[in-house]
Amino acid sequence: MRLNRDALLAQLGYEPHEGQRAVHLSKAKRRVLACGVRWGKSLSAAIEAVAAAMEPRPRSMGWVVAPTLDLADKVYREIVILVAEHLRHRIVEMKQHEKKLVLRNLGGGLSEVRAKTADNPVSLLGEGLDWVIIDEAARLKAAIWNSFLAQRLIDRDGWALLISTPKGKGWFHDMWKRGQPGGDPTFASWNAPSWQNPHLNRELIDAERDRLPEVVFRQEFGAEFIEGAGSVFRNVREAATGAWHEPAPGKRYYAGLDLAKTEDFTVLVIMSESREVVFVDRFHRLDWELQITRVKAATDRYGRAHIVVDSTGSGEPVYETMRRAGLLVEGYKFTAASKADLVNNLSLLLEKRQIVLPRADLSPVLIDELEAYQFSVTDAGAMRMSAPGGQHDDCVVALALAAWHLRPRRDRLPELAAPPKLIR
């Protein structure tokens, strides 16, 4: 018995548009789909997963992998919906909390589908796979593919489908180039803007062009590979020329503190009035009392540096404890708007080269986080700034909080930022 794909697609009620049809007809072992938001990447991937699961085999295994489990759930949820609506009689087992679906395929064998997150690469070890779908592939590190996923396909001669909106010219771009004419014959790749989906309203897309920065629109909707386009911060390496400095008598210092949440790090960044980052401390898995003691020791050493700290949610009682402990502290509550203000201020300072960062060999994590920090557009059309999936942004947030002291006032950047007004 062989799978009749056309009959299956009809049974699933799926009518692919021209771009999707090209992907489904390809026999390449490695397919790379770089398209704009709302083009239909996730649905195409889900269809490919269901078709693979229906192949008549004694047993098959396939994964949907993404930077985070929430992102992996996008394609996995599409798979579950398709199966529940059209192939319910094929379901053998479905465990939502494990993101695991087992189906009886057309040959009577068992086909297992799982959603996996790349934020814990160790969980990607071990099993051989018949297929893998990687969503938001441009947000993953190359090592996830090279060291954890590609090997899973070798013993079963499996296939891979990588889907993503472009994010600069990293490893995903390299994979896409291999599928272009004259590249690797085992690869096929496609690049298409959002408006090639005939089901989208072109007028609404054009309205987004007026709302978003041009480079953002070209990347997110136009699906262009633009060097550095996904990066929020520019001139990071150019600004990273500084060194650590001991406190200077009579000099003022300002600090930013990002408190740890679950597996994150607590990071303290101290800047001088001459806009140099002079001290960075990064630690986790310490109780709050010890963390506060450590922060107080550092800020006291730097002339009782004024601290701006994230006081949102669980951070509020810690902020209050710090205030009672005698630290000069100002709370900063995070909302979508206030975080954007914070990040934009830091971005502006770096753009104008008005702050000095430590050299990359002195603070590699800070430099790496700044360079990795990126913007994206959600399916709802909102612009989001964050670390790539599975990566940290604690150093970025702490630096942005410290740099908040240097924010523009009255349309100009002051020569000397005044100490923040304390919350009492």
N- and C-termini, Cα separation: 75 Å
CATH class of the largest domain: Alpha Beta
Q: Tell me the count of domains.
A: 2
Radius of gyration: 25 Å
Write out the strand line-up for the largest beta sheet, numbering strands in chain order. 3-4-5-2-6-7-1-8
Number of helices: 14
Unreliable stretches: 410-424
Biggest beta sheet summary: 8 strands, mixed
Structural class: alpha/beta
- Measured by DSSP, the beta-strand proportion falls in 15-25%
CATH topology of the largest domain: Rossmann fold
| Overall outline | elongated
Helix content: 25-40%
CATH architecture of the largest domain: 3-Layer(aba) Sandwich
Spell out the CATH superfamily of the largest domain.
P-loop containing nucleotide triphosphate hydrolases
Tally of strands: 17
Description:
The longest helix is centred in the first third of the chain and has 18 residues, at 69-86. The chain has helices at 5-11, 18-25, 41-54, 69-86, 142-149, 171-178, 202-211, 214-220, 236-239, 288-301, 315-324, 336-351, 364-372, 394-403; strands at residues 30-35, 59-66, 91-95, 100-104, 110-117, 131-135, 159-164, 187-192, 240-242, 253-258, 266-272, 277-283, 306-310, 329-332, 357-358, 374-377, 383-386. Helix content is 34%, strand content 21%. The protein has two domains: 5-220, P-loop containing nucleotide triphosphate hydrolases (Rossmann fold, 3-Layer(aba) Sandwich); 236-406, Nucleotidyltransferase, domain 5 (2-Layer Sandwich), CATH 3.30.420.240.
